[in-house]
Design a protein that fits this description.
Elements lengths: L4 E7 L3 H15 L3 E3 L8 E6 L6 H18 L4 E5 H15 L4 E3 L7 H9 L5 E2 L7 H4 L11 E5 L1 E2 L10 H4 L4 E2 L2 H13 L4 E5 L7 E3 L5 E3 H8 L7 E5 L8 H9 L6 E3 L7 H6 L6 H14 L4 E8 L6 H14 L3 E6 L16 H24 L5 E9 L5 E6 L4 E5 L8 E9 L4 E5 L3
Parallel strand pairs: 1-2, 1-3, 3-4, 4-5, 5-6, 7-10, 10-13, 14-15, 15-16, 19-21
Antiparallel strand pairs: 8-9, 11-12, 17-18, 17-20, 18-19, 20-21
The structure holds 5'-deoxyadenosine and iron/sulfur cluster (SF4).
């Protein structure tokens, strides 16, 4: 039997890219490839790229440059670029980089084996179409390996909201939802392979409106209730959501659905109504705050996380203060914050830009407030008993690491635990980025 060829995938960006990279590995499995963790012994290197913020394309070119010596030493090494930079700049990458053999966008990676074959024949291998066939369907019957206790599952993709700063509607295309039966089938398969926690993914996951097995249209809440019925699945999460799609049934599910975890990522971006309008967000700071109140009424202990952008065009000190006020009012348990970065092709990139030094100063102040809140939320866990799903051994002997219901990393010293165990833990310490505790036996 011929020895398997080796595939090295490097993933950038969001969780959806992590999911896509796994699917790409499965697709290439069909073409005789197995994954490797070192580029040096790979027959094919694939960069799964992200275009959301700063210098995305430059990073790809410099990473490609690092692979140049490998390619020169072994000319039959194939190098591919996938993901959102591939979608946005495919032709340019082929032209500029010289050493790239294939380019594939996020909606066409099920065609990777054909592209690889074209590249081997020295032919042009670029596919950034939004094809009519469904990549998920095309990949359905690939052989699948045993899995760890947590997994991502893409249920919705693309976005029709066109926030003025964001490339996603251009790179991932229009919003589509996978049929509920397909999602349930994939979830059951994951559980059969050892998965106990599933995070449903979508750029606008709470806008999910997939075809239901009953012929109707299912909301995300309806889908979560169906997943709740799967034996062996213990935890359900979803990310990332838009405030305007937080429907009543989804809010209620946070109170009633026992497997839905008390953690919600709900980006607001800014606390200034003037900036929100310029961002084309179609919600106000006030409507967001009311929404948070309703979610907390349904699930009082829910941990809220968010995304923020500082230095969006026209943002004044007063606008920035409004964001700080909103953060004070919400009290976030976790957050991601960024300096605005003009993305080519998006409306806000054409506007007059804020000075870099002003952006940096605002980001520092914003992050110090968010870090304080995050720290307080983590410290408040000390003395509490929380459920932890253990994922892997820690760095110290006998140590295991897992995640609490609230997504905090938790360490324990308990040598009898295995990955996939779900246990009650009493939290005894709050460290820099994680909690420590001991397993409760009763
Ligand atoms: N500049 C800075 N941050 C951005 N994000 C999206 N586009 C940009 C941009 N052009 C942030 C938003 C979004 C998160 C995924 O990335 O906060 O919620
Ligand atoms: Fe981008 Fe999210 Fe806005 Fe869609 S809703 S355009 S993915 S920030």
């Amino acid at each position: 039997m011929a020895e398997a060829k080796k595939l090295y995938i490097k993933t950038y960006g969001c969780q959806m890219n992590v999911y896509d990279s796994e699917r790409m590995a499965e697709a290439m499995g069909g073409a005789g490839y197995v994954e490797t963790s070192s580029p040096e012994d790979a027959d094919m290197i694939l960069l799964n790229t992200c275009h959301i913020r700063e210098k995305a394309a430059e990073k790809v070119y410099s990473e490609l440059g690092r692979f140049r010596p490998l390619k020169e030493a072994r000319p039959d090494l194939k190098i591919g670029v996938a993901g959102c930079v591939a979608q946005a700049e495919g032709e340019e990458i082929m032209r500029r980089a010289g050493l790239v053999d294939l380019v594939v966008g996020p909606q066409s990676y099920h065609r990777l084996p054909e592209l690889e074959a074209l590249a081997r024949e020295g032919r042009r291998a670029l596919d950034t179409d939004f094809p009519v066939e469904d990549k998920f369907d095309a990949l359905r019957d690939r052989p699948k390996a045993k899995r760890g206790p947590t997994a991502f599952l893409t249920v919705q993709e693309g976005c029709d909201k066109f926030c003025a700063f964001c490339v996603v509607p251009y790179t991932r295309g229009a919003e589509i939802s996978r049929p509920a039966a397909r999602v349930l089938e994939e979830a059951r398969d994951l559980v059969g392979r050892g998965v106990r926690e599933i995070t449903l993914l979508g750029q606008n996951v709470n806008a999910y409106h997939g075809e239901g097995p009953d012929g109707g249209i299912w909301s995300l809440a309806r889908l979560i209730w169906a997943l709740n019925e799967i034996d062996g699945l213990d935890r359900i999460r979803f990310t990332t959501s838009h405030p305007n799609d937080m429907s009543d049934d989804l809010i209620a599910a946070h109170g009633d659905c026992e497997k839905l975890m008390p953690y919600l990522h709900l980006p607001v971006q800014s606390g200034s109504d003037r900036i929100l309008k310029r961002m084309n967000r179609s919600h106000s700071a006030e409507s967001y705050l009311r929404l948070i109140e309703r979610i907390r009424a349904a699930r009082p202990d829910i941990l809220i996380s968010g995304d923020f952008i500082v230095g969006f065009p026209e943002e004044t000190e007063a606008d920035f203060q409004a964001t700080m006020d909103l953060i004070e009012a919400v009290n976030y348990g976790y957050a991601f914050s960024f300096k605005y970065s003009p993305r080519p092709g998006t409306p806000a990139a054409e506007r007059e830009q804020i000075d870099e030094a002003v952006k940096s100063d605002r980001l520092t102040r914003l992050q110090s407030l968010l870090t304080r809140q995050q720290r307080a939320a983590q410290d408040a866990m000390v003395g509490r008993r929380v459920k932890v799903l253990f994922e892997k051994p820690g760095r110290l002997p006998g140590q295991m690491v897992g995640k609490s219901d609230y997504l905090h990393a938790v360490h324990v010293r308990e040598s009898t635990l295995r990955a996939g165990d779900l246990a009650d833990v009493e939290i005894t310490e709050s460290g820099a980025n994680s909690l420590a505790g001991r397993v409760c036996l009763h």
